[in-house]
Amino acid sequence: GRCPYFFPYFFPYYFSYFELPRNGTLENLEHWYYFDYQNVRFITLNSNPPYDNEIQQAWLDALLLETERRDDLDFVLLQLHHPAESELWLEGESAFSKSVNLKLGEFSAKSGKPSVALSGHTHGYSRGHDPENPLTMLINGSIGGATDNWGEFKQRDYLNYVISKDEHGWCLVQVTIGPTATMSFKRYSFGKDGNVKDQGVVDQFILRRHNSTPETPTLNLAQASIESSPYHEEQGDSHLTTQWQASTTMTMDKIFWNRINHAYNEYGGTFTQQQQNLTNLSLPEIAGSAELKIFFVRARYRDSALGYSDWSTPLKIELKR
Fold this sequence. Notes:
Blueprint: H1 11-17, E1 33-37, E2 40-44, H2 54-68, E3 75-79, H3 95-111, E4 115-119, E5 125-129, E6 135-140, E7 161-165, E8 169-176, E9 182-192, E10 195-208, E11 219-222, E12 225-228, E13 239-247, E14 255-262, E15 264-267, E16 270-273, E17 280-282, E18 294-303, E19 315-318
Parallel strand pairs: 2-3, 3-4, 4-6
Antiparallel strand pairs: 1-2, 5-6, 5-7, 8-9, 9-10, 11-12, 12-17, 13-14, 13-18, 15-16, 18-19
Helix pairs in contact: 2-3
């Protein structure tokens, strides 16, 4: 939940009541640390100033490098107080957390191990995904204090966040081990201020250590729109995202337009279904193409476990002007 950034006189009580791992930086023991449970490495950071500094980031760099080399660890869940982005409460965002997310994304891209950045500060729930890497961003404001309601603060609909709710609640995290290792999340809602009650699961997703990516789409031109082939992924994960690109060259080295379409977006209390945008693209939507006679379009699919297909073969678009 939300709290003031830095209350040094609270720290003695916190450290008195909690016995925390002492494997962080020697000068700041128990401010940041990690522990392993089954095949997950749980990392805790201190995002409060003055601890959001280079010393903590250097410790994280070394730990992620060691984690990458551990064959028995399939996932990383990193928890810290402040979110990198908060659709419900922009003023609660943290530059330190943004830099941490960059490190996690690079780690997951290099190691193939999915990671999750779990934060609070905002009193609500949000889920987003790094557009390139298997990194999930979660805000899990729980049951305590007033929720950050729609229209109450400065807010923004971030492209790579697919759901935000101004509700109380909690998350259940479950892991499985072995060749088909998974880490799954369920968000349970307890409603809004003044109407707190159990509403069951309102969001859920699953991450896979060894994810089968979707089949590569094929594109066809049908009148003034591009149609892509049906989505298929053998593990049963749903179609989360389609990324479209347009280039003036068939080698796609001169991209002039890029779009990411998600299957849905829940923002401002409204759920918007966007499935039609995943397999169909109207030519007038391609900004910058109005004066071109020839250009090329390609697409790739992303499943809900954050695996991307290969890019489709570029489709040549030749228009009569």
